[in-house]
Structures are given as structure tokens and as C-alpha cells.
């Protein structure tokens, strides 16, 4: 599948924004699961580009105010190529020649958003008692989806995996972080994935999140699991960034001076592209 994607982020401020510094992970990279055919970022400033230790394309820019509105616009075409053939549903995500990335073992470490609580470990252990092959991981994802039920606006970006697990509800971000936390607690490297999910029946589209789980550290083989939809990633999933948790893969991060009374509006459009 090939998709035309448009992601528009608008910040509005009751009081003028005096200065801000922004870090974006809004440019997907080509890899084993997708090919970026074209992509453009438009921001109110000069963009600088780099790669982080996870392999993400990172852009940054600075705004010197005063300003009451800030618009970040990302658009392009991405062709999705889900795993197939003899290695389905596993894919290799080793860095290309000349690129350095963190080892899969780095994804064993916890973060404040993904620290497991004892109840989570007790919950997850039976699913993976016989190993962490793909069917067992999918079964765990299904269990998490039933335990942390999807409920819009029940959490926020600061909600930890343990808090969402105790609450019993959350959004895709929370379900993905619970999956990541459970796997790490049982000695399996796992990472958070931010991106998009194409749903032609949805009235409004939003960013999506799921989890990558490393099934072979030495060969850097991964499987990508969408807890919310209880499935492996497929032709509906477009990847933006990966990280140890939401904060490390967030599409937009920043700090500002001034700009009180901030209001945020996000518009995402995804359509098949022929």
C-alpha cells in the first residue's frame, strides 16, 4: 500500500510566544517495512536534520517571537511493505553500513513511563512462560488489550504503564507502553513505535502507537505488534519513530518562553495513493 499523508500541528497562544526550541520526529525513514517516496516539513524557522541513536530522523528549529500561532506541517508519500515470505512476520532492522545505533539490549532498560509494577509482571509471565515466539507475544498483546481497555481521553502523555495498568484503561500509547514494560520485565528487548494507522472507516485520524519486540538479539530480528488492534503490523501501519517510550519517539517536543494559554490542534489525513 502507498499512502499520501498530511499531518498538521497548530499551537495557539493567549499570550505571545517569545522564544521556543522544537525537536521533531515527524519524518519517517525508509527501512525493512516501508519506503518513503517523498516527504516535506514546513515550519516557521530553519530546520536542521540529524539521526538519533535509535535511527530516527530528527529535525530541530528555533522560533524567535513574538508569535500567537505556530504551525508545523508534514506531508508526503510512504509505501508500506509489511514482512512477507519465509521470514514472516519477523523483519531484520540492523543499521545500514556507516550508521551506528543502540544495541537491541538497550531496550531492556526501563524508563519512568515503562517501569513495570509487580502486578504487571505476574500478569504477563504466564503468556511467555514457554518462550517469546510470535504467537505467545500476540497472546500477551491480546491479554493487555483486554486488561487495559481502549478509552479515549482516559489518560495523558505523562501516564505511565503502571498507572494505565492499574486504571484498566488507556489509549494506544498506554497499551504499547504496557506491552513494552511487560516484555522488558521478562528479559525481552522491546521498543515503543509512533506512527499512523490507516482506517478508512474512521471519522477522524490520529497518531498511533504500537510495540516492536526483539525475537533474536544477535540477528536484530523484530516483530511489530499493535496491541490496540491485537495484530501484527501490516499494510495499514506507517512508522514515524522508535524509542524506549513515548517521550523518546514523540512527534513534537519543545520548550518555550512565554506563550501562556497554549492550545493545541492536530489534523491528520491519510489516503491511498495510486
Automatic annotation (TrEMBL):
| Highest taxon above the source species | Bacteria
Q: Which SUPFAM superfamilies match?
A: Cysteine proteinases (SSF54001)
Query: Which InterPro entries does the record match to this protein?
Result: Bac_transglu_N, Papain-like_cys_pep_sf, Transglutaminase-like
Q: Where is the Transglutaminase-like domain?
A: 164-229
Q: What is this protein called?
A: Transglutaminase family protein
Amino acid at each position: 500500500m502507498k499512502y499520501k499523508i498530511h499531518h498538521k500541528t497548530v499551537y495557539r497562544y493567549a499570550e505571545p510566544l517569545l522564544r521556543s526550541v522544537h525537536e521533531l520526529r515527524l519524518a519517517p525513514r525508509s527501512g525493512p517495512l516501508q519506503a518513503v517516496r517523498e516527504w516535506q516539513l514546513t515550519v516557521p524557522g530553519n530546520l536542521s536534520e540529524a539521526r538519533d541513536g535509535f535511527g530516527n530522523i530528527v529535525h530541530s528549529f528555533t522560533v524567535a517571537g513574538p508569535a500567537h500561532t505556530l504551525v508545523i506541517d508534514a506531508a508526503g508519500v510512504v509505501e508500506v511493505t509489511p514482512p512477507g515470505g519465509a521470514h514472516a512476520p519477523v523483519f531484520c532492522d540492523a543499521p545500514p553500513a556507516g550508521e551506528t545505533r543502540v544495541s537491541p539490549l538497550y531496550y531492556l532498560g526501563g524508563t519512568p513511563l515503562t517501569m513495570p509494577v509487580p502486578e504487571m509482571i505476574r500478569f504477563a509471565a504466564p503468556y511467555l512462560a514457554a518462550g517469546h515466539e510470535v504467537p505467545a507475544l500476540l497472546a500477551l498483546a491480546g491479554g493487555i488489550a483486554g486488561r487495559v481497555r481502549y478509552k479515549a481521553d482516559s489518560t495523558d502523555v505523562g501516564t505511565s504503564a503502571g498507572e494505565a495498568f492499574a486504571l484498566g484503561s488507556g489509549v494506544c500509547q498506554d497499551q504499547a507502553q504496557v506491552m513494552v514494560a511487560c516484555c522488558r520485565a521478562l528479559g525481552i528487548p522491546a521498543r515503543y513505535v509512533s506512527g499512523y494507522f490507516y482506517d478508512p472507516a474512521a471519522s477522524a485520524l490520529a497518531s498511533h502507537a504500537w510495540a516492536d519486540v526483539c525475537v533474536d538479539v544477535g540477528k536484530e530480528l523484530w516483530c511489530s505488534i499493535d496491541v490496540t488492534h491485537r495484530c501484527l503490523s501490516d499494510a495499514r501501519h506507517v512508522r514515524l519513530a522508535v524509542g524506549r517510550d513515548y517521550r523518546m519517539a514523540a512527534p513534537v517536543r519543545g520548550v518555550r518562553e512565554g506563550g501562556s494559554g497554549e492550545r493545541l490542534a492536530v489534523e491528520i489525513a491519510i489516503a491511498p495513493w495510486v
